[in-house]
Amino acid sequence: MLWKNLSEKPVYSNPWLRVNLADVELPSGRHLDHYVIRQRPVALATAVNDADEVLLLWRHRFITGTWGWEIAAGVVEDGESVEAAAAREMEEETGWRPSGPLRHLLTVEPSNGLSDAVHHVYWADGAKHVGHPQDDFESEKRAWVPLRDVPELIARGEVRSANAVAGLLLLHHLKTAS
Question: What 3-state DSSP class applies to 157?
């Protein structure tokens, strides 16, 4: 059943997102107003070290009032490649630079019923510590967490963001299946 977006008009805009009101035609011909959040792409990156530990951030999300492990992430700047944004965010938020090439892990649409947000998740074999994180205000701590613990952390609700859950489960699968 195809829903048709006939038009959109802006409701609110800032450098991070736009909220539009869409005129949507349902397969029955009925129309409905649907709010749509338009966002820039997001890039995420982590690394796995020789001890099979994954680099994560422990942070608080004030919107939901929750704490959890996440992968370093941020918006892709104009003119920047997604891979470059992922590497930049990892270094800025963790103080670790990927030591090898970043590999695309997956791309997800975390809330495609409301937003056109697309999150691209990357990982590297290893990372080099380059100093204190530039954006240390984004997390309480940074840690190398055993990859084998990822499924249990997710089950306990210690990894809550959809992009991190999907990426870490796939990374766990790929690294333990080999």
Answer: coil
Strands (E), 17-173: 17-25, 31-39, 42-48, 53-61, 66-70, 72-75, 96-98, 103-108, 119-125, 127-129, 141-146
d(CA 167, CA 162): 8
Report pTM.
Answer: 0.93
Q: Quick check: helix, strand or coil at residue 136? A: helix
Please state, in angstroms and rounded to a whole number, the distance separating the CA atoms of residues 37 and 49: 37
From CA 28, how far away is CA 62, in angstroms rounded?
A: 41
Q: Residue 149 and residue 32: Cα distance in Å, rounded?
A: 45
Q: Where are the domains of the chain?
A: 4-39, 42-177
Class of domain 42-177: alpha beta
**127-175, pLDDT tens digit by residue?**
999 999 998 888 989 999 999 999 999 999 999 999 999 999 999 999 9
